[in-house]
From TrEMBL, chain A:
Protein name: Nitrate reductase
Localisation: Cell envelope
Organism name: Halorubrum halodurans
Lineage, uppermost ranks: Archaea, Methanobacteriati, Methanobacteriota, Stenosarchaea group, Halobacteria
Cofactor(s) needed for function: Mo-bis(molybdopterin guanine dinucleotide); [4Fe-4S] cluster
GO MF entries: 4 iron, 4 sulfur cluster binding; metal ion binding; molybdopterin cofactor binding; oxidoreductase activity
Chief location bin: other
Sequence ranges assigned to domain 4Fe-4S Mo/W bis-MGD-type in this UniProt record: 76-140
Length: 1004, 273
């Protein structure tokens, strides 16, 4: 800043200079007018927020405002950052600042190219990122710790100091740990990849406290269960640049142009390069319009469509036989009597070289001899064992059907392939047409084209993953790439881009988040289901299976059952980087049953979202432009940083600093209270609150005290301890400074990925198995389409099959299907309340109705309608959507509860329901193939089987009309703007009553 | 937020600055703005106490009386306990989220609290950047910057009010004969000419504080249960308007619409001044 102090007249200043300066700064200014009796209020005249930095007695010539514009104005700084939390775009931006404020952002556009034959990766970004400044500068930024003073959700808040806030939280934590209810402490935060330091901040503390880390990928129904079932892997995708390598792409329920804006160019460019693009959407979506063909199956019928296509491929011999024999379970023999795989241990006289022959499977070779299947789990040392190979030295018979002499006597067996062909034979063109509405010839034509090209790919999305039978749908669609051998090569595969299942820099993140290595993870769907009391309203068969899964330890539930058979309620919940209360399916039960069980809800946020509004303490956190962190995504193979363009606004702090300081407060109070270490009832460790801050800041790998006190050091820790950024055995390493200079491509992949990152090639998964012949991480060591778990057999789901979804509401009563797609204008609830984004749409919650459905109900575009079912009703605006099929209402995800008249939302119409097949462990005794691991395997929180009805709301009855500012539907309006508005309840603001309505005037 | 400092070391006003060294009317106006700035802060214990014990009310009345402006002082007494006043404050000014205003015509309500303390909220004519940049230039020109450990936006009411107070005091202390704001153009060595400071004050009002004051008043008029904050906002709007009229008159600057920097498109669409 220019020093404008004029020192030339220093000699003319007398002893009054100090007092004059004080006066100008407001000190004693009230007294300066000569008034007396001002009382203590005269102290309030001092400048507190604005600071006089130059000599106030200096010379400030002023003629006109233009004097202020003499100096050329330019940015005085810029910084590289990006946007989180749950946006998988991971786009690098430059943020421009002036005077310590963010002025604007711009796509950085400097991703290095690794393959000149692919379209330029630059620039990445979308309209949401381009206006994130709105949040940074927003009026509604939470800038100070707030504590509720009224009932939860009532809206009465007071500002408290950081010390008060942290003390109150720390006391509650210490009480819980001393009561040995540490597993009643929950931490919910989603998706680490796009800000792993922030993710790790609370997870690290919760881990040290012995608390519970919640899953998110399964909870949001982003996890495709078919992938762990069939491929033994959570999910793995090619980066989006690989789309360009494909000759044929099916976008199956993945609305790329809406939900993958930074990547959509690869889809478009692939078309220009000659690839055929087929869109499978129930509506004529924004992606469908850019495809060469659009297939519109009836909602929920994707499984039948895929199986019909599979039948065509099989019947017409278009499958890749070599791939099926080597890479899949198709040649394995299955017992006809039990439906179980034939095990080597059961076959008399079969030579087995394995520690666990009961987990070794059997094929028949071309000569009719029985052979063990190489790579079976019984031969392997755990799920992942690359010391073995699945390569065959014989030719297995896919069509085997024979009697086998077993320890149980003679048993009839058939291959999985034979069983599958039987299943597929059900899906004749007529049946497929009847179930899906897709033409008899159309689906066969697409199947043939898909099978006949060299490189075919499916981009798979949430549109087909939100159904109760999503596991069956996944398996059926996966079958298409397996049958055609479209796996493990560039331009092939099934890429499921929903949420963000993985973080590239895995080990560094894991060690930062969970330093003890003993993680109390919980499937959030089950946790919510149980503690929200939904078990009591579940059909007996499902409830029994859920209980069995819990009792057998297949799925963990916390707090754990105590020795006396009791189970405490959850007690304390931290939510950061997420909006649990708003996004919860079954949210009525969450609000009414689960929420009251929590003694303390702490929300860490930069805005008052629905969870913050319904919490007890809100801690202000830094925005994306105010902190150090990292960002990666499975949409690309780069890593780039968040760096602080400006200081956190007000008293806000970064997530890392908040949890670190909470750890310090816990340690301080624990020392004062003399809290002794508590033995963890599950893990071999002590929970020592007197060292929790020291443990928080300690680098557990190098055992360096205090090394992780700062955010940037935590980010460096991740880079240093991840194979992807610091490969073992090389001199190459990516540092934070490197990626701040320019996004860098990751160097290698760790052992949790199934291909290498190769120079000059877009990443494409599964090469470890398909090209290198390592066993797939499944029970059979192969892509496994047959699951012989008792529950699968009982439910007749051992193979992918089409099933109708559960009847949650009767169609006669609620004739319309209801789904909640992702929107173009927000990333979940973030940006849902941004004015710029709202102006690009209707500005409020809207349901999309087919014109016929609307006309039948007398609804016109723009009408207020009531959408309801047996659970609840919501009032929203109707939008007529000719591109939508009749019979389906779309209510785009995920408006905040406060944007609805009655504080309910899109999820109020959605119950929580779980499918038992997603609660299993497999093999049942050891679980190497399917076992609970947060975000890898667990029940998905599905929602697309819901039915509703819609009716117009009479204009005078619409709650929205009361939204006219300051006027209630029933209250009297004050017309005298100069008068005090003191009548409690006489006026409401917007659709939502404010606290001031309740408080009324103060009587003075 | 830092608490007001009740006691300071060093010479007091009477000890260090000779009597008659300031223009009392300008100084009083400066203190009115300063008190308003303090009153629009989160009601911490100290601020609430001064509301509750009547000292803020009394001080404001005294200062308004000495400001030379014909404006009725506000009633700044409160009966709320601190928690209730804090709940009221946070509800009105802090906790913000978008709400549906009109479900049929696409009207988008702001994302902020019911009554924003940020001027940019009331400026549909210019961007957030422009408002804040303009203020940053003004603060910087007169040797000020956003202070303290916290990063704040330049257009918050407290900053603008403190700055308005500061300009008043610059004017008040600018002339050794105590006539800086009283009609004489004689200036003290080193300081800006009094007429220049009057021009600066008028321009600042026209460009910023008038917009904020009237916007805040309008917003609070539309809210229930605004209590002392509604009264304060109504007073502030009237006081700023009176100050503007007085300054314009002294500078012969004409009515609002005639002045170069006057914003005529206020939040309610009506002409001010």
């Amino acid at each position: 800043m220019t020093d404008t102090t004029d020192t030339s007249n220093e000699s003319t200043r007398d002893a009054s200079g100090t007092a004059r300066r004080d006066f100008l700064k407001g000190v004693g200014a009230a007294a300066a007018v000569g008034a007396t009796g001002l009382g203590s209020a005269q102290d309030l005249t001092e400048m507190n927020t604005l600071e006089v930095v130059d000599d106030p007695i200096g010379n400030y010539p002023y003629r006109d405002w233009e004097d202020l514009y003499r100096e050329e104005w330019d940015w005085d700084g810029k910084a590289r950052s990006t946007h989180s939390v749950n946006c998988t775009g991971s786009c690098s931006w430059q943020v421009y600042t002036r005077n310590g404020q963010v002025w604007r952002e711009e796509q950085a556009g400097d991703y290095p190219r690794f393959d000149e034959s692919l379209p330029d990766p630059n620039p990445r970004g979308c309209q949401k990122g381009a206006c994130f400044t709105d949040y940074v500068n927003a009026d509604q930024r939470v800038t100070h710790p707030l504590r509720r003073t009224g009932e939860r959700g009532e809206g009465k808040w007071e500002r408290i100091s950081w010390d008060e806030a942290l003390t109150e939280i720390a006391e509650e934590v210490i009480d819980a740990v001393e009561d040995e209810e540490y597993d009643a402490i929950s931490g919910f935060t989603p998706i680490p990849a796009m800000s792993p330091v922030s993710f790790a901040s609370g997870s690290r503390l919760v881990n040290l406290l012995g608390g519970v880390s919640h899953s998110f990928y399964d909870w949001y129904s982003d996890l495709p269960p078919g992938q762990p079932i069939t491929w033994g892997t959570q999910t793995e995708n090619a980066e989006s640049a690989d789309w360009y390598n494909a000759d044929y792409i099916i976008a199956w329920g993945s609305n790329i142009n809406v939900t993958r804006i930074p990547d959509a160019k690869y889809f478009l460019e692939a078309g220009y390069d000659g690839a055929k693009r087929v869109g499978i959407f129930t509506d004529y979506s924004q992606t469908a319009i850019h495809c060469d063909e659009w297939i519109g199956p009836d909602p929920g019928s994707d499984t039948a469509l895929a199986l019909g296509m599979a039948r065509t491929i099989v019947d017409e011999g278009l499958y890749d036989e070599e791939h099926l024999k080597e890479q899949t379970d198709m040649p394995l023999l299955v017992r006809e009597d039990t439906g179980k795989f034939l095990r080597a241990s059961e076959v008399s006289g079969l030579d087995v070289d394995a520690d666990r022959p009961e987990k070794v499977f059997v094929m028949q070779d071309a000569d009719g001899g029985l052979r063990t299947a190489p790579g079976s789990l019984g031969e392997r040392d755990g799920q992942h064992d690359h010391s073995l190979s699945i390569e065959l030295d014989f030719d297995p018979d896919l069509d085997a059907e024979r009697t086998v002499q077993t320890t149980d006597g003679a048993v009839e067996t058939r291959t999985v392939w034979q069983n599958l062909r039987d299943e597929l034979s059900e899906y004749t063109p007529e049946v497929v047409n009847e179930i899906t509405g897709v033409g008899r010839q159309t689906h066969q034509k697409i199947a043939r084209e898909f099978a006949e090209v060299d490189r075919a790919k499916i981009i798979h999305g949430k549109g087909v993953n939100d159904w109760y039978h999503n596991d069956l749908g996944n398996r059926a669609i996966q079958l298409l790439v397996t049958l055609t051998g479209n796996l493990g090569r560039q331009g092939t595969g099934l890429d499921h881009y929903v949420g963000q299942e993985k973080i590239w820099t895995f080990k560094g993140w894991k060690n930062l988040s969970f330093p003890t290595g003993s993680v109390r993870g919980v499937p959030t769907t089950l946790w919510t289901y149980y503690h929200a009391g939904i078990m009591e309203n579940t059909d007996p068969e499902t409830a029994a299976k859920i209980q069995e899964s819990i009792d057998k330890g297949w799925m963990p539930l916390y707090p754990s059952e105590r020795d006396d058979g009791s189970r405490p309620d959850p007690r304390l919940m931290f939510v950061w980087r997420g909006n649990y209360f708003n996004q919860a399916k079954g949210n009525i039960a969450v609000e009414e049953e689960l929420w009251p069980k929590l003694d303390l809800v702490v929300d860490i946020n930069f805005r008052m979202d629905s969870t913050a509004l319904n919490s007890d303490i809100v801690l202000p956190t830094a925005s994306h432009y105010e902190k150090h962190d990292l960002s990666v995504t499975d949409m690309h193979t780069y890593v780039h940083p968040f760096t602080p363009a400006v200081e956190p606004l007000g008293e806000s702090k970064t997530d890392w600093q908040i949890f670190r300081e909470l750890a310090a407060k816990i340690q301080e109070l624990a020392e004062e209270r003399g809290v002794e270490p508590v033995e963890d009832r599950k893990f071999d460790r002590e929970i020592d609150l007197q060292s929790v801050h020291d443990d928080y800041t300690r680098d557990w790998i190098d055992n360096e005290p205090g090394a992780l006190a700062e955010d940037k050091a935590a980010a460096e820790f991740i880079l240093e301890n991840s194979e992807e950024s610091n490969p073992e055995g090389t001199d190459e390493q990516l540092t934070f400074d490197d990626i701040e200079e320019q996004p860098r491509r990751l160097l290698e992949t760790g052992d949790h990925w199934s291909s290498d990152i190769e120079e000059g090639e877009a990443y494409s998964p599964w090469k470890d198995y398909v090209q290198d012949k390592n066993p797939w991480p499944t029970f059979t060591g192969r892509q496994q389409y047959y699951i012989d778990h008792d529950w699968f057999l009982e439910l007749d789901e051992q193979l992918p099959t089409h099933k109708e979804g559960p009847v949650l509401q009767e169609k006669s009563e609620y004739p319309l299907s209801y789904n909640t797609p992702h929107s173009r204008w927000s990333i979940h609830s973030t940006w849902r309340d941004d004015s710029k984004m709202l102006r690009l749409q209707r500005g409020e919650p809207t349901v999309y109705l087919n014109p016929e459905d609307a006309a039948e109900r007398g609804i016109e575009d723009g009408d207020t309608v009531r959408v309801y079912n047996d659970l609840d009703s919501v009032e929203v605006q109707a939008k007529i959507y000719p591109s939508g099929e009749p019979g389906t209402v779309r209510h785009f995800f995920s408006w905040e509860r406060f944007q609805y008249p009655d504080r309910n939302n899109f999820n109020s119409l959605v119950p929580m329901y779980m499918k038992p097949t997603q609660l299993v462990q497999y093999p049942e005794d050891t679980g190497e193939h399917l076992h609970f691991f947060p975000n890898y395997w667990g029940p998905t929180g599905v929602n697309s089987d819901v039915r509703i009805e819609v009716e117009p709301v009479e204009e005078e009855a619409a709650s929205l009309d009361a939204g006219l500012l300051g006027v209630s539907a029933t209250g009297s309006e004050s017309t005298d703007s100069g008068s005090e508005s003191t009548d409690s309840g006489s006026r409401t603001r917007g659709a939502l009553g404010r606290v001031s309505d309740l408080l009324g005037g103060d009587g003075s | 937020m830092s608490e007001p400092i009740a006691e300071r070391d060093g010479p007091g006003f009477d000890e260090g600055l000779r009597a008659g060294a300031i223009d009392e009317e300008a100084a009083a106006r400066g203190s009115v703005y300063a008190l308003a700035a303090a009153a629009f802060a989160e009601p911490s214990g100290g601020v609430h106490e001064r509301f509750a014990d009547g000292s803020l009310d009394e001080a404001m009345a005294t200062l308004v009386d000495r400001s030379g402006l014909d404006v009725d002082p506000p009633d700044l007494t409160v009966e709320d306990d601190r928690e209730t006043l804090a709940a009221r404050y946070n509800d009105l000014f802090v906790v913000g989220y978008s709400e549906v205003i009109d479900g049929t015509d696409g009207t988008v309500e702001n994302q902020g609290p019911p009554a924003s303390l940020y001027e940019s909220t009331y400026r549909s004519d210019v961007s957030w950047n422009d408002v804040n940049l303009d203020l940053a230039r003004a603060y910087e020109h007169f040797g000020c910057e956003v202070g303290g450990d916290e990063r704040r936006h330049h257009d918050h009411a407290r900053l603008e009010l403190e700055f308005a107070g500061y300009l008043c005091r610059l004017a008040a202390a600018g002339d050794g004969d105590g006539v800086a704001d009283g009609g004489s153009d004689g200036g003290s060595a080193g300081a800006a000419e009094p007429s220049d400071l009057r021009r600066a004050r008028l321009d600042f009002h026209d460009r910023h504080l008038s917009v904020l004051a009237s916007g805040l008043r309008t917003a609070l008029d539309e809210e229930p249960g605004t209590s002392v904050y509604g009264r304060l906002a109504r007073f502030l709007d009237a006081f700023v308007a009176a100050d503007v009229d007085d300054l314009a008159d002294r500078l012969d600057a004409g009515a609002g619409g005639d002045r170069e920097h006057a914003v005529t498109d206020g939040p309610d669409g009506g002409e001010r001044s």
